Amino acid sequence: MRDMNQERTERIIRAVAFDMDGVLIDSEPIYLRHTVKMLEMDHPQVTEEAMYPTVGMRSKEYRTFMADLLHMEEDPEFEKLLDRVNSECHVDYHSIMRPEVPGMLQTLREMGMKIALASSSSLSNIRQVLKECGIADYFDSIVSGESFVNGKPDPEIYLCTFERLGARPEECLVVEDSTYGVAAGAASGALVAALRDKRFSFDQSPADLQIDSLAEVPGIAGAGGRSV
To answer: Cα-atom radius of gyration of the chain, to the nearest Å?
Structure first.
């Protein structure tokens, strides 16, 4: 664990909110590789590196980014192409769930923490992932970025999540990975733990802490955000 803010005041943490892709499940490399494989023959500019900025984006922003990358208009032909790419991406979500997730969630539950998921993914995708991973029952609230005008890095999704949990931002711990997600968590006023991922050049500097495993989360929550 790396403490990014040595002067941070200790807090009483009552709730933990997680991002999904890249945090609970290691899905982002799979999505990127699949998209490149589907498009690179006709669109050689589509590389994994070129796709890195899409990590953490909502569907709306993702489609605009991809239209620019593919030099296409957001018209029916473009929508048909993206829909085909997405429909042919078959993922065994249970196999890419981080192995420490069930035990970590069980520990948080035993500590009396409220637990939420705040993801830019669609609600249908979130529900599918939680069902396949067998962890849906741990969550007190599930919030999709589809429901908001502004996606991450705007803090709106987290502020709504905290309200649903009945907790103030300063009583919440956000666990994120991407540049957009970390920025959203920090802007919300919550304590932010960023899960390191050396495969992507994420800017995690707004986070209070960096962690290498989700197994560290209960200790951080229980210690009020202090390094443990």
So the answer is: 18
Number of domains in the chain: 2
- Which structural domain range is residue 149 located in? 2-26+93-222
Flag whether 216 is in a domain: yes
pLDDT band at 228 (very low <50, low <70, confident <90, very high): very low
Domain end point (choices 87, 108, 133): 87
227 in a structural domain: no
Cβ 192 vs Cβ 221: under 8 Å: no
Q: Is residue 228 part of a domain?
A: no
Instruction: State the Cα–Cα distance between residues 49 and 58, nearest whole angstrom.
Output: 19
Does residue 155 sit in the same domain as residue 183? yes
The whole-angstrom separation of Cα 205 and Cα 128 is 32
Tell me, yes or no, whether 110 lies in a domain.
yes
Q: Cis ω on the peptide bond leading into residue 29 (within 30° of 0)? A: no
Query: Could you tell me if 25 and 182 are in contact, meaning their C-beta atoms sit under 8 angstroms apart?
Result: no
What token pair was written down for 90? 């078959």
Q: What is the pTM assigned to this prediction?
A: 0.84
**CA angle, 150 as apex, 132 and 207 as ends, to 5°?**
75
Residues 46-95 pLDDT 10s: 898 888 888 877 778 888 999 999 999 999 999 898 888 877 878 899 99
Residues 136 and 204 in one domain: yes
Both tokens assigned to 47: 């590389």
List Cβ neighbours of 37 (8 Å cut-off, separation of 6 or more): none
Q: List pLDDT tens digits, range 113-143.
A: 999 999 988 899 999 999 999 999 999 999 9
